[in-house]
Amino acid sequence: MTTTTNPSAPAGTRIAEQSPLRHGRSLLATRTFQPGELIATFNRPILALPDGPGMRTTCNYCLRPSSSPTNPPVLRACTACHAAVYCGAACQRAHWKSGVHKAECAMFARVRANAGKDWLPTPVRAAVQVLMLLQARDRAVVVAFGPRGSLEGNVEAFRRDAAVWADFDLQGKASLVYGRLLGTNEMLGRAKEVLCKIQTNAFNRLDADTGAAGIFLDPGLAMVNHSCVPNAFVSFERRSAMLRAERQIEVGDEILISYVDYTAPKTARQEALRLYHFQCDCPRCKDDLDVYQSLALQDPTSLIRARWSLVQTLVAASTFAVEPLPSAILAASSLFQTTGGDAKLPYALSLSCLLATACEPFKLVAPFLPWRVKGVMVIAKLLSATAPLTASGKLAAVCAHKGLVGTLARSDQVSMCEAMLRLVLVWVEMGGGAEEVRREAKEMLGDIESLEGRERESELLRGWAGDLQNKEGRAFFEAVVLAPVRELAGWAVGIMDAEFGERGEGDGC
Ligand SMILES: C[S@@+](CC[C@H](N)C(=O)[O-])C[C@H]1O[C@@H](n2cnc3c(N)ncnc32)[C@H](O)[C@@H]1O
């Protein structure tokens, strides 16, 4: 890279010559930024222009479009070229003073007279602006685009891409013709280099509300590298770009934005990144994760919060089998099983009971499907893990959820666990697989059968498992197993709301 002067870094950041992640130069945080916090405003762009035809419907200086939903501007054309429009005299003056319209006004008058057109394609107009300002020795433009300018252009990589290079050739020639900058081959080379730098560093400035598009280039903002798991994002307002933290950024962290729609699948992201000439090696790309998985990597609680807020309509309609509601509950159950210790195991049990009674039977109708068997096995394990705490009366001391503790205290957890294990064995037999699950269930059942004083319960459950329609066994199952399982499931939505809902942390009692 032939860098001379790097742009100055905004307060709270610094430019590193080599990114810690080997992305070339990069912007690093020198203080902590909270999610949503403004890192910097960039309001002295080198390029800020509407897209080609948009130059007739958007103020060419402040970029307010006539389709603006609030207070749409009345746009008046420059009386000299009749092409560039402005929302008022102040914007017209500022555009002239910046040197931009002073440089291009005569060109648009010519384009209008010779071609009957009021606008030029966006990259051509952008390249003409840069080339004319270079010729006028505009300091900021020389520092960024000059022979040893600060902006990365990936020129050699572009040169190897025949189709793109041919486009740049055409656009370069057009900018030299329209800008009356014709001269040597060297001038065409310079125009193509400018186009490479614009392609690498300019932002597509799309306003979703008004549909107005355009480009924006600020050399400071251009120091920010890409990740599909970004910690920052950019938004635009008129001629300003705001860089904000998307998540907590610590001192020394590289500030990373996504150059593309990071919710798109990997192949689409890679295609969109093709013109930046690098292979993204972010955690999402490395393991081809979807957005939920990548969020879970960093912060499983945020993932579940995001999912739980997404499924509120399904919860209100009690359509528990419709995705992504079951996945939200499953993710929360897994989290409670792996973090939070004994206090959260009853929470995981409640959620697993909801999955087994209200989600999975409707989603996966055949009971012997491996996922349903696994769900019942999880309930058995959670009953087994919490039973000693319930029996010793210690559960109330560790688990804050009085309702759950009460349900478990009134239940025969050992019979419930036995019933789940017998169900697993019946279903594994029907489904013809899962040797590992069968072995584990048999082992746990052996432990339960060796307990003294529960011969009658075991006999009833054995009878029920051998013949699910067995009257006595079925009545026992419904009263001693199914009723408490339903009661446990009944606490689940409250737990989810308290732990992951908008009302925040709580015990869901
Ligand atoms: C807008 S510039 C960012 C600043 C750049 N690193 C520099 O030194 O000027 C975009 C270019 O930076 C490099 N870049 C950005 N993100 C990258 C990443 N995740 N991995 C590798 N290179 C990256 C690529 O060369 C890309 O074309």
Automatic annotation (TrEMBL):
This is Suppressor of anucleate metulae protein B. The keyword Metal-binding applies. GO terms for cellular component: nucleus. GO terms for molecular function: zinc ion binding. Keywords: Metal-binding, Zinc, Zinc-finger. PANTHER family: EG:BACR7C10.4 PROTEIN, HISTONE-LYSINE N-METHYLTRANSFERASE SMYD. SMART domains: SET. Residues 59-105 form the MYND-type domain. Residues 11-260 form the SET domain.
